[in-house]
Amino acid sequence: MRKVTMRFGQNFYLFSIIVIVSLLGRPDVATTTLWLAPIVWDGTFDQKMIDNIYKPRNITVATTVFAVGKYVRFLKDFLESAEQHFMVGYRVHYYLFTDRPDEVPAVTLGEGRQLTVIKTATSNRWQEISLRRMEMIEKLIEKELTGKADYIFSLDVDSKFYAHWGAESLGDLVGVLHAWYFGSSRNHFPYERRPESQAFIPFEEGDYYYGGAVIGGRLDEVHKLAKTCRMQLDVDRANHIEAIWQEESHLNKYFLYNKPSKALSPEYLWDDTKWKRSYLKVVRFSQVVKNYANIRPNP
Ligand SMILES: CC(=O)N[C@H]1[C@@H](OP(=O)(O)OP(=O)(O)OC[C@H]2O[C@@H](n3ccc(=O)[nH]c3=O)[C@H](O)[C@@H]2O)O[C@H](CO)[C@H](O)[C@@H]1O
Ligand SMILES: [Mn+2]
């Protein structure tokens, strides 16, 4: 009898430890959305296990970067830091859209990584540059990527990688939770509120506010996203209305009705100017400090 009790006691002890350790994962933050998509935080995944799944698949990740006008100055840091931290050990093909191909810095790329420069028109409005990204991603997937890549990311160039960003970020359709609005209630989100715009979201709707600086997923899903947003942008243009945060507003509308299958936490899109919060154990990718008046065609 005494032996049985002891065994039960030992098992209970072990069981308690397992429960505590699993709860310790990230009890301070939500790790799934209400539609049960994972929210990727430090401490919620095992990198080795993830690599064991994705490495044998021999995948290629296309990555679009736009550097128009003075934004070419961000390329060096962006690319050098990406080579240190972004999808290291995987095949990455950067597609760099720029109006200044001569100013693209020479950055040594790792094995299996390549960069294609695509000359693009210049623009007198930064809003236009940001808006046109959807159309260019749509066309790139149609004309170039089928059969050549498995996943695609679109990333803002005025940013830098500071820590590991790997295959844990891959999914069918991936969005990033905007650092400035994470934890705010939805009526504070800067969604487009004018019903005249195709990006309109009423105050009683919305789950998260997603940043326009990171979009990812499988080619077909991102193609559908880019095409839909481009069409909505065309309708807005015909109606002489521009959504408050340009393509980011349309992206938020899209994600409201086509939920991402994975959400990246603000670790994947922080802001160098923002005070670090306790939930932020690591900054992986962050917007660099910039002087808007200095770098944009129209500040
Ligand atoms: C952190 C975040 O989510 N940022 C979003 C936000 O402001 P941001 O202040 O981050 O916008 P931004 O000035 O970085 O422009 C977005 C991107 O467009 C490109 N670009 C822009 C201007 C220019 O003269 N040359 C050029 O190449 C460049 O790749 C840049 O990273 O709202 C924008 C909406 O319009 C975009 O959705 C951004 O992704
Ligand atoms: Mn930016």
UniProtKB/TrEMBL annotation:
An example Gene Ontology molecular-function term: hexosyltransferase activity
Species of origin: Ictalurus punctatus
Cofactor binding annotation: Binds 1 Mn(2+) ion per subunit.
UniProt cross-references to SUPFAM superfamilies, sorted A to Z: Nucleotide-diphospho-sugar transferases (SSF53448)
Keywords: Glycosyltransferase, Manganese, Membrane, Metal-binding, Signal-anchor, Transferase, Transmembrane, Transmembrane helix
Statement: the UniProt record of this protein carries the keyword Cytoplasm: no
GO biological process: carbohydrate metabolic process
Positions annotated as active site in the UniProt record: E248
Residues that coordinate or bind Mn(2+): D156, D158
Family, similarity comment: Belongs to the glycosyltransferase 6 family.
Name of the protein in question: Globoside alpha-1,3-N-acetylgalactosaminyltransferase 1-like isoform X2
Phylogenetic placement of the source organism: Eukaryota, Metazoa, Chordata, Craniata, Vertebrata
Residues that, per the record, bind UDP-N-acetyl-alpha-D-galactosamine: F66, A67, V68, Y71, D156, V157, D158
CC terms in the record's Gene Ontology section: Golgi apparatus; membrane; vesicle
Topological category with respect to the lipid bilayer: Single-pass type II membrane protein
Transmembrane segments: 12-41
Domain of life: Eukaryota
